[in-house]
Automatic annotation (TrEMBL):
Keywords for this protein: Metal-binding, Signal, Zinc
Binding site for Zn(2+): 91, 93, 144, 147
SMART domains: Pro_CA
Sequence similarity: Belongs to the beta-class carbonic anhydrase family.
PANTHER family, sorted: CARBONIC ANHYDRASE, CARBONIC ANHYDRASE 2
Upper classification of the organism: Bacteria, Pseudomonadati, Bacteroidota, Saprospiria, Saprospirales
Tagged with keyword Heme: no
Protein name: Carbonic anhydrase
Length: 233
């Protein structure tokens, strides 16, 4: 009788351990459907929808009420394919992670980052993939205040490959040198405008999509002190 009890206990233990192990390996075992996430995901069909979601996402971030933070759920939803609504070109600066400041998490936005948020053929190719191949509706070029790359251009910084990078920012330098902070801000905003113009000039693929109202391209400016994004429309 004792041996039968032991066998029974061993079988039950094996079943419990196996089930627990499977649950640990399968994130969707613990998924909870979030109606707010579902609503935001299914409501984006136009460039204006995408822009509205980024505006709302930044407000959620500022309010400390993000909804796109269940990363395991987002991995599960996007494991077979991706359909991000926006592509964002932002600065390398570690204080500006677009996925966080727009409360988008995993799978909702393409992000390209380079010091000074400038385009080059690799960035353009990536944006063409995002818009033409994956159907992304919105391109955002986002600069920020107190940008080290813009300051490097103003100060004629020289270091290895960085020299040619800051040289590309020099056409954007504008404003009064006696007010360095304001000058950096004005130059960074000018850099966003010039980058957008360069993207449209250098990519007929994107220019056509924008002309046909299938894609919108907008500038944005991030404030390092507040976390707030201002769209330059
Ligand atoms: Zn920067």
């Amino acid at each position: 009788m004792l041996s039968i009890k032991l066998i029974f206990l061993a079988v039950i233990s094996t079943v419990v351990v196996t089930t627990y192990a499977q649950a640990q390996r399968t994130p969707n075992a613990a998924l909870k459907s979030n109606p707010k996430v579902e609503a935001a995901h299914t409501a984006i069909h136009t460039p204006e929808d995408a822009l509205a979601e980024l505006r709302e996402g930044n407000l959620r971030f500022l309010d400390g009420k993000p909804i796109n933070t269940d990363y395991l759920d987002q991995i599960e939803r996007t494991k077979s394919d991706q359909h991000p609504h926006s592509v964002i070109l932002s600065c390398l600066d570690s204080r500006i992670p677009p996925e966080i400041i727009f409360d988008q998490g995993i799978g909702n936005i393409f992000v390209a980052r380079v010091a000074g948020n400038i385009e080059d053929p690799n960035i353009l190719g990536s944006m063409e993939f995002a818009t033409k191949v994956k159907g992304t509706k919105l391109i955002v070029v986002m600069g920020h205040n107190k940008c080290g790359a813009v300051k490097g251009a103003v100060d004629n910084a020289e270091l290895g490959n960085l020299t040619q990078l800051v040289d590309q920012l020099k056409p954007a330098i504008t404003g009064d040198k006696s007010n360095p902070d304001l000058m950096l801000t004005e130059s960074a905003k000018k850099n966003v405008e010039l980058t957008i113009a360069d993207i449209l000039k250098s990519s007929p693929v994107i220019a056509d999509l924008v002309k046909n109202d299938e894609v919108k391209i907008v500038g944005a400016f991030y404030d390092l002190s507040s976390g707030k994004v201002m769209f330059m429309e």
